[in-house]
Design brief:
20 strands; single chain; eight-stranded mixed beta sheet; 11 helices; nine-stranded mixed beta sheet; globular; FAD/NAD(P)-binding domain; 407 residues; 3 domains; D-Amino Acid Oxidase, Chain A, domain 2; alpha+beta
């Protein structure tokens, strides 16, 4: 006798990846029932809601990687989705700027990587062209990426949720924090703070909590989420006219972060940042936020210390800038020298769910793991928001085969 279930699939996590996955499965399999569980009172509260809003081109990612392939496909689909549902976006382009001779070799690597990834419209630009695009920016050489854009990913997430529940059988359940997954042969009881729901299958898209949810389901993730907070400043009303679109530095290929950059957001404001510092709380957006559990999980993990030893000089510099407006401003002045202390004010912060292996290496590519009755998205860092609809297609493909979905 089969156990009665409340839903065919429960998706844990109401960020953009969980919602895109549920949306794609609902479209391809309209006869099944899906519930998306979100522990907060609103969807897209954490990584999605603290996202910079950039529609990434796919320029930086290793050719042939899931990141590279899904970013390119996801970007095209995201723009089409925004057009169809009248979500405001803008393809404003961006420039990557070298300010020193020693950055030119890495700039060339980025350009060649973009060619391998077949990014449309990328071109090398010189000092005069940089000035023509961004009059207040100083650089000796650069790359223009015309297909990069901006959008509000929270609005995308809201629309995905609306489309999911429009199917009738499906539900979005906020304020449902998962505390236990009790797995049986043909179903799983998902115990939440609001009660227990039974599902045939589980899809874990819990972002900053994904390794913990995987453990609840009996899955050894072989990695751990190590949180990194990124602090932003915002340009004042007068100073924001110094940035026309997006300005990025040349990234260091040894680091998983793109460096401090300028982003004009869809509402017209301009963010500058982020830095990248270890966070003592997975969902801590303040400089002094602390969680004993989160700190212990990260600092008792040998991979964290291996990573710290490898990048300690960089980490100390990032911490110094986190607490010094003067040092942060100095980094911004590398790209826009005319910025002054009165031109910036404290802005938002975000926390990145960085998956780190036992060897201390940040896991670079997306990572999805299967187990009987469950699928776990264990690493979905930037450009996951841009790539979300393509990731949703990939999760749907895995679910169709792994769960043997027929409807």
């Amino acid at each position: 006798m089969k156990h009665k279930v409340d839903f065919d699939i429960i998706v844990i996590g109401g960020g953009i990846v969980g919602l895109a996955s549920a949306y794609k499965i609902a479209r391809k399999h309209p006869g099944i029932s899906i519930a998306v569980l979100e522990k907060e009172q609103q969807l897209a509260t954490h990584q999605t809601g603290h996202n910079s809003g950039v529609i990434h081109s796919g320029l930086y990612y290793k050719p042939g990687s899931n990141k590279a392939k899904t970013c390119a496909r996801g970007r095209e689909e995201l723009v089409a989705f925004a057009k169809e549902h009248r979500i405001q976006y803008e393809i404003c382009g961006k420039i990557i700027v070298a300010t020193k001779e020693k950055e030119l070799a890495n700039l060339e690597l980025v350009y060649n990587n973009g060619l391998e990834n077949e990014i449309e419209g990328i071109e090398k630009i010189g000092q005069d062209e940089i000035k023509a695009i961004e009059p207040f920016c100083n650089g000796i050489a650069g790359i223009r990426v015309s297909c990069t854009g901006i959008i509000d990913f929270t609005e995308v997430a809201k629309k995905l949720a609306e489309l999911i529940v429009a199917k009738g059988k499906n539900k979005i359940l906020d304020s449902h924090e998962v505390v236990v997954c009790d797995t049986h042969d043909y179903f799983t009881n998902v115990v939440t703070n609001q009660g227990t729901l039974a599902a045939r299958y589980i899809i874990n898209c819990a972002g900053l909590q994904c390794d913990r949810v995987a453990k609840m389901c009996g899955v050894e993730a072989k990695m751990r989420i190590v949180p990194f907070r990124g602090d932003y400043y915002e340009l004042t009303e007068q100073a924001k006219e110094k940035v026309k679109s997006l300005i990025y530095p040349v990234p260091d290929p040894k680091l998983p972060f793109l460096g401090v950059h300028f982003t004009r957001r869809i509402d017209g404001s301009v963010e500058c940042g982020p830095n990248a510092v270890f966070s003592f709380k997975r969902e801590g957006y303040g400089k002094t936020d602390f969680s004993l559990r989160d700190s212990w999980d990260a600092l008792s993990y040998r991979g964290t210390w291996k990573m710290f030893r490898r990048h300690w000089k960089y980490g100390l510099g990032e911490y110094a800038r986190a607490f010094s407006r003067k040092l942060f401003l100095r980094r911004l002045q590398r790209l826009i020298p005319s910025l002054e202390a009165d031109d910036i004010k404290p802005g938002n912060a975000g926390v990145r769910a960085q998956a780190v292996g036992w060897d201390g290496e940040p896991i670079d590519d997306f990572r999805i793991k299967k187990r009987k009755g469950s699928i776990h998205v264990l690493n979905a860092p930037s450009p996951a928001a841009t790539a979300s609809l393509a990731i949703g297609d990939y999760v749907n493909k895995i679910a169709t085969e792994h769960f043997k979905l027929t409807d």
